[in-house]
Records
---
Amino acid sequence: MHYPAGVRVEKKKDVYYGNRGMTLENDLNDTNNYYLIHDIAIVHKKPTPITINRVDYKSRSDAIIREARFKIPSTTDYNGIYKGKYIDFEAKETKSKTSFPLSNIHQHQIDHLRSIINHGGIAFIIVRFICFNETYYLDANDLFSFLDNNDRKSIPYSFFKEKGHLILDRYNPRVDYISVIDSLYFKEVV
């Protein structure tokens, strides 16, 4: 901004961290909506359970939540049903060019994915490497294999290239993970 007398004042940019990972989430929500509309699968985003501690009421229709806490640790981001099979998955984005930090996925989420597999469901993670604009489906069994056989704090990008399944961007459905599920679990027998 330029003021009279040539004084230049730079406005500080506010930094917000609340919507990190929202691009993948929005793409998945659009994808799941496409699956629902076309009667392909029923998959929904799970709401994060919170307890509201403080609300400002200007009026009943204009209430603003000022303070809230997580009730319990959430499990994973999405769940639903496809071809009679329960599916459950976590979605993450990373800016790293070399790996996916395991700090991005919590132990209770890994335990939850193990439970899904143990009960015959389909469990996986979807990871988007932002710098490459690549999105990978990684089956939970491959995730567990990596975790059980490594002491690393991150999963190398090369592991996703080797064991993961690249999901190509499309117009509709945007992130077609169902085609990967089809290729892994519902192969046509001729």
---
Amino acid sequence: MKKFTKKFIQFTVGYLILLYLKKDRFYTYKETKILVKKGVFHPAFFFSTKFLISAIKTFNLTNKKVLELGAGSGIISFYCDKKGAIVTSSDISPIAINGLIENNRKLKANVTIIESDLFDKIPNQVFDFIIINPPYYPKKPNNDAEKAWYCGENFEYFEKLFKQMNPYNNGNTIVFLSLSEDCDFNKIASIASKNNFLLKKYLNKMILWERNFIYKVMPK
């Protein structure tokens, strides 16, 4: 019964959120106001965004090189920029990229914005922080919007992610990966291990009906 109730709540709330996100919306976090383009993950409703910020806010980010991979609204990138970081923000979605460019200009931020499928178009360099809020439901995405939710029938997103990560990570890089109890953690961890990475639990928190986790991606 509890499982049924959780699924019903998720479906109902998810449906209402999708209706809300059919229009461009504004969102303010810590006095930073951004435009969230329709169809882009909205940080007010997707708990992992603020949870990731809670993980990085304990660090001194001044002059640290930060990559937000799959940035969506970019609120994490703009937070890091305000803290003095040297930020690169990427996304596969042209709609998300347009929003990032517009917000970067309005906020007078200095974020480097790159349209990229994971690391494909990220210039080779070592980052101090890589922040990833990934899709993790195993289904083939049919468009860019669905790529924010679905990682492919065979977890192709994670296969590519861990295969590409090495040139950007010198072993001292702090890589934060956000997951929830609804994902197939064992499958994701096995893909990481195959590519010589370990997932070490860093934070966990029950947010409404769902337990959320932040893992550090570490070399084996």
---
Amino acid sequence: MNTLTVVRKNLRQRLLSSVLTAGLVAVGVALVDTIWVLRAEAEKAFFKGTVGNFNLLVGPKGSPLQLVLNSLFHLDRPVGNLPYAAFESLAATPIVEWAVPLAVGDNYLGHAIVGTSPAFFDRLRPAADPFAFAEGRAFEGEMEAVLGSEAARRTRLRPGATFLAAHGVVKNPLPGSEHEAHPLRVVGILAPTGTPHDRAIYCTVETVWRLHELGEHHDEAAGSPGGAAPDDDRVVSAVLVRLRSPTMIGEIQRQVNDKPYAQAVHPTVEINNLFAIVGNIDRVLLAVSYIVLVSAGVSILVALYNSMSERRREVAILRALGAPARTIFLLVLAEAAALTAAGGVAGIGLRYGALAGASPWMREWAGVAVSFSPPGPAEVLLLAGTIGLGALAALLPAAVAYRTDVSRNLHPLT
């Protein structure tokens, strides 16, 4: 007697029930696996891809998380403005290795326009590697723009093209919000980094001032880190700061936070706080996914248990032909394992479909690139656990089959 042949025959006899049960298993496995992968990819992008190689983010007083989301992920609205002299003072501080300004508040077709300096491309490491140019070059003067790879793809702008920035962060600006007197010209396109930097458009800080008619007079900065001349109308939104020694982070934070208009935040801390909030949602979604898997297990139990009354004669014949009771017991467990294995494999396949659907949304919303990696140890454990759940659900039907009375069930059932 071939065990696989018997199992295949039994599943084929209850084809509709088998397909529905395996489908329920597939949905549960796909949900669990997709949530795991999206969580891991988001953490990788948020922590490694965007925080990069700087220590602190300095900006105006307000919500630290909002400052991080707006400055690094181009989400939410700007917290406010910081005097440009505060950046100059930070950059001149001996323990600061480098400082890079960021000025935001405009957009083109929903892509944030970020005013910065050439040091942004030279110093920052968005994903362990430096920025590279797919086309063109970095900006060298006012009204020149460099596009992230995703911004270039969606706007269809190429080097040499011009466009008009719009005030604010709204994708569809109100009439009159475009800076018609100051068109920007594209001079370069960055290679993909798989981070939110791909969605942004970069220009000089002076370009942002020109768009808003700022910076007509330049007062001198004074004071310690975060110090600024109050009558200087030149402003930035945030400053990326890298220290010569990470041990000085606490001291710089205290000095900046003591200023009435500035704060220094550690991006990793704020992102951890964000994931602590999002983690509650993850847990709810995972709980729902596990409930689906348990429901699939209950479905297997009910389907096999109900089928035992119809298969008593079949079991009795197998016993009469010499099959031991333990073989009958294992056959029922094998049916359940086959159902869950088929559903589990299909679920892992569905995971790729779910990621394919979620990837464009994540790339557009947060600039997170989802990698389609092959199944790993986590998927193997998930599949093994799913098969174990099916076998556990089949214990009661298997026990019923094990105890089937041969003599009473050999005659045809009416």
